[in-house]
Design goal:
With 436 residues, the chain is α/β, with parallel strands linked by helices. The chain is 49% helix and 15% strand. The structure holds glutamic acid. The site of glutamic acid has 12 residues, from helix 13.
């Protein structure tokens, strides 16, 4: 009884957290609302709305993992494929205590649009396990990863569904996924997952690709809005693989990074943070906690600091109806997936704040994942210079097409990007026809 009550309490806590994470909204409802807003604008027919407004496959697993103390814990995980009309399903796997099925469904739908907006031949998927990986030893993390991979292996494969890193997963986790899948197949299958270490079929440039793409999007947006990136003040929320690279490369592009944050809080220096020192500090200490050359601010304060460009690169639901009115940035470039609620979008539109939406701004990661997959299938590799040049090309073209579409329809960049993406997916569904 006591255990059950505790478990129910924990579940309730998770639900509250997940909804609070989307500014009090269910994240999948939010993704569907964005879809319908664009579908209305483009006059999408009802049959296509019915097909694209839902996820094709959603698979939930509960699986045991032996912990270091000998106990057995059971974890819940999901793999969701939203739509595969344009190619195999593609999308990351996250390990986070707030993962829910509805969150994974929203993220899978966004992956479909993201792949379409940059024109790479994938559908959308996402996976997640409800776990705080900070509480696991390396061995427990490996066991959890391998067992989850085995559980979802009927769904994944190089021509079916290709996972990648997302929140709290990294190249090592991808190597375990590749190895587990390969052991079951009886040979090495390099194309089953992307974001792998270089030694086992990873791609040059994949580690930095998402943050690099965010900075390419910021450069394009600044240019379109008549803002000079040199000397522009930038605030980055989140210091994981996306935020840390976005901050580093923004500085390299001439901007001044005045605010950063991670799980330990926010750090503000109006004269500009020394990014080389910050990166060294984070590497040496494992987090930004205690970083000396900055004022401490809360996460809420960080988002409303004076700056020109705000890059939310942490989790979803950060910019909401409650704080959008206080945001001081002129440009928002979404490194995270789903950081802005529809209520905040409406406020930003009214205030003339230009938002580069997640499905465009953070598409650099999956774009270089596509390069990695192509290289794996061909057993061939490109140089980092080639990868970055191709990435730049794709990001610039996708930005220009989205900007044009947004202008033509008189809508936000989010709706413009969705119109481009939904149109491509709808065309693929239509030309393929309905089986049988
Ligand atoms: N998880 C990343 C995203 O949200 C990368 C996905 C991928 O490379 O497949 O875009």
């Amino acid at each position: 009884m006591a255990v059950n009550a505790r478990r129910r309490g924990a579940q309730r806590h998770r639900v509250v957290q997940a909804e609070a994470g989307a500014g009090g909204r269910n994240l999948f409802d939010m993704a569907v609302e964005q879809f319908h807003a664009a579908a209305d604008r483009m006059g999408l027919d009802d049959n296509l709305r019915r097909i694209l407004g839902v996820c094709q496959h959603q698979y939930t697993v509960n699986f045991p993992v032996q912990m270091d103390d000998g106990s057995i814990q059971v974890f819940e995980g999901h793999r969701v494929q939203h739509n595969v009309a344009r190619g195999p399903a593609k999308g990351g796997i996250r390990f986070h205590q707030d993962v829910t099925l509805d969150e994974v469904k929203a993220l899978a739908m966004w992956m479909t649009w993201k792949c379409a907006v940059v024109g790479i031949p994938f559908g959308g998927a996402k996976g997640g396990v409800t776990v705080d990986p900070r509480g696991l030893s390396r061995g427990e993390l490996e066991n959890l990863t391998r067992r989850f991979t085995a559980e979802i292996s009927p769904l994944i494969g190089p021509y079916k569904d290709i996972p990648a890193p997302d929140v709290n997963t990294n190249p090592q986790v991808m190597a375990w996924i590749m190895d587990t899948y390969s052991m079951r197949e009886g040979h090495s299958v390099l194309g089953v997952v992307t974001g792998k270490p270089l030694t086992v079929g990873g791609s040059e440039g994949r580690g930095e690709a998402t943050g690099r793409g965010v900075v390419y999007a910021a450069i394009a947006a600044a240019k379109a809005r008549g803002l000079d990136l040199t000397g522009a003040q930038v605030v980055v929320q989140g210091f994981g693989n996306v935020g840390s690279v976005a901050a580093k490369l923004s500085r390299k592009a001439g901007a001044t990074v005045v605010g950063i944050s991670d799980v330990t809080g926010g750090y503000y220096n109006p004269r500009g943070l020394d990014m080389a020192a910050v990166l060294d500090y984070a590497r040496a200490n494992g987090s930004l906690g205690g970083y000396p050359d900055a004022d401490r601010v809360t996460n809420a304060e960080l988002l409303t600091l004076p700056c020109d460009i705000l890059i939310p690169a942490a989790l979803e639901g950060q910019l909401t109806g409650a704080n959008a009115g206080q945001v001081q940035a002129r440009l928002i470039v979404e490194g995270a997936n789903g950081p802005t609620t529809p209520e905040a979008d409406a406020i930003f539109a009214e205030r003339g704040i230009f938002v580069v939406p997640d499905i465009l701004a953070n598409a650099g990661g999956v774009t270089v994942s596509y390069f990695e997959w192509v290289q794996a299938l061909q057993a061939f590799s490109w140089t980092e210079r080639e990868i970055n040049a191709r990435l730049r090309n794709i990001m610039d073209q996708a930005f220009a097409a989205t900007y044009r579409t947004a202008e033509e329809h008189g809508v936000s960049m989010r709706t413009g990007a969705l119109i481009c993406a939904i149109g491509r997916v709808a065309d693929a569904v239509t030309v393929r026809g309905i089986y049988p």
